[in-house]
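Summarise what follows for lecture notes:
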Amino acid sequence: MNIEETLKTIPSRPGVYIFKDRQGKVIYVGKAKSLKNRVRSYFISSNNSVKNEAIRNKLNDIEYIVTDTEVEALILECNLIKRYRPRYNILLKDDKNYPYIKITTDERFPRILIVRKMKNDKAKYFGPYTDMGAVKDTVKLIRRIFPVRNCKKSLEKVPLQERECLNYHIKRCGGPCQGYIDEERYNSHIKDVIMFLNGRYDVLGNRLVSEMEKAAEIQDFERAAELRDQVLAVQKMMEQQKIVSSEMIDQDVIGCAGDESNMCAALFFIRKGKLVGKETFFLTGTGTHELKDILGSFVKQFYASTTFIPREIILQDEMEDMELIGEWLSEKKGSRVNIKTPRRGEKRKLLEMVIQNARINLEHRISSIEKEREKNNIALEELKNWLDLDDIPYRIEAFDISNIQGHEPVASMVVFEGGEPKNIDYRRFKIKTVSGPDDFASIKEVVYRRFKRGLEERTFLKEEGINDKEGKFSTFPDLILIDGGKGQLNAAEETLKELGLKYIPAIGIAKEFEHIFLPGKSDPLILPSNSPALHLIQRIRDEAHRFAVTFHRELRGKRNLKSILDEIPGIGKVRKKALLKAFGSIKRIREASIEELKKVKGMNKKTAETVYEFFH
């Protein structure tokens, strides 16, 4: 790439720049007020930081996206970092793993769900949270306090022609499916849930007390008793809160602790002066970045994926683009957001408490990682000895086949390095050349495809003068693990021999007795039940099995979506979706009249008659 020629074409406009390596992989995303000036700064002699030098060594292509304003560039930068997760950007630990609480306000009689991903829909999301156990407990408590449904039934038309569920009888649901609770009252419960999740317990508690007293006055004792239980639950939550600020406003307090290798960010949620929750996040790619860069990256990534923004955000230090980020957050909230970096007083004391929490959490994490690493090292050393290998099998690749009587056959490849899963290297395969339940032939196919691709990639990288480690398939394992016995192992061995890779050691593990099979040996290797090496092999095998089964279920689920509606002339994807949304099930579509079918969005008289005639 000719850098000078490329720089000449970049405009002096706000926007986002994207750096890519020779494989076309995004390695860094940044935003700029002037794209030309910012990108050029990476190539001046005085800008020789470790990060910039690494980026320059890997850089092969520069792309950019022009925006109208710097705020737009900031939002786009957040989205692209989340999408590509570039190597040289500061990243929250992969946030797709963090749970959110979702309220499906985009449907009639909303539900409360725990989800792993935010969608661009009309639902309300709370999070991200780092503790799944705490999220489950919160949702469980909400369902106990507020009679909100958790079923998947379509309630566009109520009452349904079926009996009430158990949740209604134990007073965990108001029974909207039977029309026992009207939409207005149900939605008031949803508003209370939203208030609860926003930590506004005092406002909610006062309102519930007022409603309880009114219900008692008009002698609606059943309603008064229901409200009393809600009041008690909310009061219990209020008692557990700690008053940490004399200011009765909503605040988030963010503090970081760590070094170049490890960094932790702690976030305290303060609502009306009370600490209502806290979360801990671990950051990657911090390297030699300054604290202001780390804080800026954290704030942008966290608030890009959360719905509630407080009136005030307290930070331990000023961050890069502080005014711009404040403008973006204010625009997102719809009112002024103040970002402060206190040096003394009550807020500084509060900040020190948050930083201390970050430090303690980081120390605990490092200790846990070191213990796990030591345990894995023992297991790998023992595995080397048991298998009589020349070196410790640092990288292990495991293969498993999944199918049901030969249908939708798939294979998985999982990778462990140093005894820990390397998810980015996991691969899934659809079996293409095998018909019927033939695990031996399936193993041959998938092993051949994986290593044939790897050999081709190695040849290409060598011609380009690129290190093998840069490819997706060119890094070969120190040990191959096949989920199965002698037959599956022999199939893999034949393939490795055919490809000239017989030197890569392979073993099989049979599920029934956990016996280890080695090439050329008739008797299995039986490891002690308390062997760390056996436990590691089992963990890798189970992960390969989980990954294969998950893929198989996905394919099976997609196949099952091709319902009986696909057989009806004139009913395409859009009409099929509209019918299912309107009626909820094939059974109710079958029972519908022509007039009812005609009222569905996208349907007309002719298609309604076609559907009706098909079922009748």
